[in-house]
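User: Teach me something about this protein's shape.
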Amino acid sequence: MVETMEPISPYFVLHNWQRKLFALIAAVIIWFLVSHSITDTKMIRNVPIRIYNLPADKTIIGLLPNGILNKRINLILSGSKDVIEQIRPGDLEVNIDAAAIDHADWIVQIGKKNLVSLNPNIDIASNINSVSHTEFVIKLNRLVTAKVDVQIMPPIGEAPEGYQFLGIWPQKLVQTINGPEEEIMRLQSKGLELTFDLNEISKSSLDAIQEASGANGNNEVAFPVPTKWT
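Assistant: First, the predicted structure itself:
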């Protein structure tokens, strides 16, 4: 014996349709509110830190030309579960107003207002409740310009075939450097060392120099060090 299902009556569907539509809309709203009220916590690693409004006479050790510090930070974010689950490394950036730094060793307090979303699909303001992290200190340094001695070390590698290394002139250079006072003072006290690699000099380049110089009977060739080597 086979039973057949009775077709759904149009009257059943349309009867009190306003109330049924209202109930459906209310259920969707409740689901939306409940799903957004569920919170979660997640660690986002290696978040970049951008510094802006830095005074012209100040700098920070490790600050790159683009305003990003070479040191990154791990952040623990709490907020809406569906948004927290979406966040990936590279979606966030920390922005710090250097005008708020009031002393040399400044302990950073990163909050939601410091976060910038690099992902247009992530709304931080509405979905992140709290931000926590380990202690992070920014050290302000005076920006200075000074001269630093550069010692030329014995080269490495082998001279091209048919040539023999004789020496380097001058043995010492002076380099003008601009940067954090603390780093500049360290470099001045220690100095810099520069080592060249003879393997990067080709035989053809030495032959060309010798030919261009028109030196007959002079077996010495002076190879000018390219700027990119220094």
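Now, about its shape. The chain has six helices and eleven strands. The chain has two domains: 38-135, 143-212. If you'd like, I can walk through any region in more detail.
User: That's plenty for now, thanks!
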